[in-house]
Amino acid sequence: MGLEEKLPSGFVMNTVEQAAGWVRKSSVFPATFGLACCAIEMMTTGAGRYDLARFGMEVFRGSPRQADLMIVAGRVSQKMAPVLRQVYDQMPNPKWVISMGVCASSGGMFNNYAIVQGVDHIVPVDIYLPGCPPRPEMLMDAILKLHQKIQGSKLGVNAEEAAREAEEAALNALPLIEMKGLMR
Ligand code: SF4
């Protein structure tokens, strides 16, 4: 929003997009937010052995207003869901979400009324990370994949075009119930 909406399309826009993508992916600040056992692996990832500092993201921010990445680490209870959404709403745009572990992604083994069956019912998710719990190496792999996504993100008119194409692809996609074999 703002200045980027006013930029002309074409060569200038592509250059600005590449520069903005590089700057954004090199300074992702995670929110301090852990929900269950997966959070222990997330904390380990931020410590010296795995060293998130090499990506410029070692400082987990105490305020959501200073963070642009939410790592949902652990199962989300129904009681916690509105709090999670409030934290997400307080984060400035652009912002990203990693769903860490099977509990956050699908409810995992907690198939009951107390646990949200997938955090994507509450906030939009950019990366789903499998595992119970995922190892720090897996979280770092997810972060690197998120970096690729941030680097390739569009601005202004290009963003509108990308959103239109994504919506069209989603509408034309085969319904899950009709998928067979290797999900095709
Ligand atoms: S995925 Fe496993 S480690 Fe993570 S919150 Fe669920 S039970 Fe805990």
Tell me what you see in this structure:
The chain is mostly helical and 184 residues long. The protein is 39% helix and 7% strand. It has 6 helices and 3 strands, in the order ααβαβαβαα. It has a 3-stranded parallel sheet. α4 links the parallel β2 and β3 (127-129). α1 (11-25) runs antiparallel to α5 (136-151) and α2 packs across α5. The protein is globular. 26% of the residues are buried. The mean pLDDT is 87.
Strands of the widest sheet, in order across it, are 1-2-3
Average pLDDT works out at 87
Structural class: mainly alpha
Residues in β-strands, percent: 5-15%
The residue ranges in which pLDDT falls below 50 over 5 or more consecutive positions are none
Could you give a quick summary of the protein structure above?
This protein is mainly alpha-helical and 184 residues long.
Features:
three-stranded parallel β-sheet; 184 residues; globular; 6 helices; mainly alpha; binds iron/sulfur cluster
Give the topology:
Layout (H helix, E strand, L loop, with lengths): L10 H15 L12 H9 L22 E5 L7 H10 L5 E5 L1 H5 L20 E3 L6 H16 L4 H17 L12
Parallel strand pairs: 1-2, 2-3
Helix pairs in contact: 1-5, 2-5
Bound molecules: iron/sulfur cluster.
